Amino acid sequence: MTIKVVRGNPTPEELAAALAVVRARAAAAAETPPGAPATRDSWSDPSRIAAHRLPQPGPAAWGRTYWPG
User: Fold this and answer.
1) pTM to 2 decimal places
2) pLDDT of 37-65, one tens digit each?
3) What span, in angstroms and rounded, lies between the C-alpha atoms of 24 and 58?
4) Nearest to 19 by CA among 8, 6, 33, 5
5) Nearest residue to 67 via CA among 46, 51, 43, 44
6) How many H helices and E strands in the chain?
7) What is the C-alpha separation between 30 and 39, in angstroms, rounded?
8) Angle value at C-alpha 69, between 64 and 59, nearest 5 degrees
9) Kindly report the CA angle at 28 between 20 and 1, in degrees rounded to 5?
10) Rounded-to-integer distance, Cα 61 and Cα 69, Å
11) Apex CA 24: angle with CA 22 and CA 29, to 5°?
């Protein structure tokens, strides 16, 4: 692995910290089995939105367009 500083003049401590983060991320990616599904945050899961019924159209539908929750 080659790391090249493109801009700036990092101190040895800053460079060591950046390298530690890169190595930790690479180690975490290596521990995940290749066939394992990627984890997703629950807020980005589309099924969370589709779990609720949508309002039905009708004369009072405009009053149901906002659901405090």
Assistant:
1) 0.43
2) 666 677 777 777 666 666 667 777 766 66
3) 55
4) 5
5) 51
6) 2, 0
7) 15
8) 5
9) 50
10) 18
11) 95
The four Cα atoms 33, 36, 41, 45 give a dihedral, to 10 degrees, of 160
**Predicted confidence (pLDDT) per residue in 25-41, tens digit:** 888 877 766 666 666 67
Tokens of 57: 């159209």
Counting other chains too, the contacts that 45-49 makes at CB distance below 8 Å and 24 or more residues apart are none
Longest dimension (CA), the chain: 68
CA distances from 3 to 25, 29, 47, 58 (A): 15, 19, 40, 62
